[in-house]
Design brief:
mainly beta
Length: 178
């Protein structure tokens, strides 16, 4: 179920006088009105103390134009490639990941592809991490059979040289205590 009006602040709390950014998405047409409240109690349980919102009189309610801001599940960033940026002959990429919804399809962790789909992709499958590189003269692939535990944290390291690929996966249980 998608709520017709959703929003959040860029921070959980702020001191008096500090600015906060408000992010809102509305599936409704027209405008919406927003005001600032202090959450004193947030327990919606009918047997609990209930929800208590106190108005902040120093900040007047304001009206804003409604617009839809789609939410894409998962964490994602897309960065346009810089012109002339080339990888060195030898490079290492290290990520800390917590794979969740692993099924038949590989889940891309990071990739660098051109408009024709040539380049490289590091992905996670339910069998473990996979690196694939494609280009006009062929490609390379390395896969590690190390099925990740659901919701476990891992450090995935890829080292690439002209001659070899090395892919490693290390659980981070001790680091986070899970």
């Amino acid at each position: 179920m998608t709520l017709p009006l959703t929003g959040y602040l860029d921070r959980i709390s702020a001191r008096p006088g500090e600015a906060v950014a408000v992010k809102v998405s509305s599936l409704l047409a027209g405008r919406y009105t927003a005001d600032l409240v202090r959450v004193v109690g947030g327990d919606p349980n009918p047997d609990g103390p209930g929800i208590r919102l106190d108005p902040v009189p120093e900040v007047a309610a304001r009206s804003f134009p409604a617009r839809a801001q789609p939410v894409h599940l998962g964490s994602c960033v897309e960065v346009p490639a810089a012109a002339g940026l080339a990888l060195p002959d030898s490079w290492t990429l290290q990520l800390r990941v917590q794979p969740w919804l692993l099924d038949e399809a590989p889940r891309v962790l990071v990739s660098r592809l051109d408009a024709a789909g040539q380049g490289w992709t590091l992905a996670m499958t339910r069998d473990g991490p996979v690196f694939e590189e494609t280009g006009p003269t062929g490609g390379r692939r390395v896969a590690l059979h190390a099925p990740p535990h659901p919701r476990g944290w891992y450090e995935v390291t890829l080292t690439a040289t002209a001659a070899a690929l090395r892919l490693e996966q290390r659980p981070l249980r001790r680091l986070w205590g899970v």
